[in-house]
Structure prediction request, 232 residues.
Amino acid sequence: MIQVRYFARLREELNCESESLEQVADIRTLMKQLAARGGKWAEFFAEGELILVSVNHEMADPGVAITDGDEVAFFPPVTGG
Amino acid sequence: MSRAVVQSEPLDIARVQDGLRADNPAIGALVSFVGLMRDFNDGDQVSSLFLEHYPGMTEKALDAIIAEAEQRWDLMGVRVIHRVGALKPLDPIVIVVVASAHRGEAFDACEFIIDYLKTRAPFWKKERTGEGERWVDARESDSEAQARWKE
Prediction:
């Protein structure tokens, strides 16, 4: 299993803070799976949408592999400082 | 004390500066950047701001940015303190303080750190205006500011 977390606008509009999902091969596969839920999910996880992702607290690209027990997070571009 | 701190309490700028240079007579320059909350953004009055972050990742991301600055420049101390939670106009949001023997390195490293923080550290601003609440969008100019350090 993997832990998937959502932040800021994503968390609010998807109405989901965190969930446990079956492990998949990589980020790209996970994003396709989330987009297939339809509605807002399809909008946020459509290919080409500007969304950032981290694996175990490190920024990651869609090609990064996922291992069992990983924490994956999705969020909009950051606006701190 | 950790070099990067995320806190909901107000920032004490003088205390951070004094703490960094304390008892080190080799330091010849101390450069600080303080980011403040403005009361106007994208054409609207803003009455308050809420800063969300990703606990666990934020501290790591800030530490990584500081480590990168220390590789590029010869520094004698760095502190980055960022607020989260509810803020009001006039409140300091972030302070970056860099100490070095001479000013050139401290100026450059301080600007590098805030440019990277703005595009890499997982913070998100939500502001309240007369129309209600809205998430602040990332700015293209921030990505451009970060990109110029890449050569």
About this structure: The interface with chain A takes residues 35, 51-54, 56-57, 60-61, 82, 93-94, 114, 117-126, 135-138 of chain B (CB under 8 Å). The mean pLDDT of chain B is 95.
